[in-house]
Each structure stands twice: as C-alpha cells, then as structure tokens.
Amino acid sequence: MRHFVLVHGACHGAWCWYKVIAELKQAGHKVTALDLAACGINPRQVDQVRDLVDYSEPLLDFLACLEPADEKEKVVLVGHSMNGFSLCIAMERFPEKIAVAVFVGATMLGPDFDYELVAEKVSRN
C-alpha cells in the first residue's frame, strides 16, 4: 500500500478531499491531506504569505519530517489546480521522498523550468 499526500487547489482546503480520503483508506492506503498556508484550518493569515514557498510551507515541512527507508515508503503527491506549483516546489526539494506526483487539473512546470526560474521571471514583470 502507498502513502498519498493530497494537496488542495486554490480557494480550498484539505476538506475538499474527504471522499477521496475515504476511498483510499478503504483500499488500505495511508492518506495525509494538508491545509496549505492560510487555507482550511491552517492558522496563518493571508497577509503573512509572501510567495508560493510560504504558501507551500505546510507541505514542505511535512516532507522534511518524513524519512522513507525504501522505495515503497516514498509518498504519492496529488495536487489540484494552482497547487501544482506546490508539488513542483516539493519535487525539487525532496525528490528522494516522492515516488510520483499526480497533477489533477493542476498547473505543471515543464522539464526546462524549475520554480526558482519561473518565480524570477514573474517578479521581473
């Protein structure tokens, strides 16, 4: 069985995955659904979120605490909508902890772009 980490889309929270969580758990998988910064029950306020890295901090902190011992313990990241960016950041920082990422109608950077490059180009405009 796998460990799925579910990341909600824009204007949502972890609550949006409740049916998916039930199905995955019933199938015997481990599931973690996170509220990103200033979303759902996350206590951070919107004015405290400066950029997408701040916004993705709950996911990055979660992954930083994981210590997969082998390939079977790597997580399956699932992201929706705008938070494909959060998945991209996580994949860049923790490739050794992620088995695969699933982009569900989500923003996905191409192989020639990393988050830092895109953020730099956006900030210039």
TrEMBL record:
Matching InterPro entries: AB_hydrolase_1, AB_hydrolase_fold, MES/HNL
Highest taxon, organism lineage: Eukaryota
A GO MF term: methyl jasmonate esterase activity
GO BP annotation list: jasmonic acid metabolic process; salicylic acid metabolic process
Domain AB hydrolase-1: start-end pairs: 3-118
Alphabetical list of SUPFAM superfamilies matching this protein: alpha/beta-Hydrolases
Protein name as catalogued: AB hydrolase-1 domain-containing protein
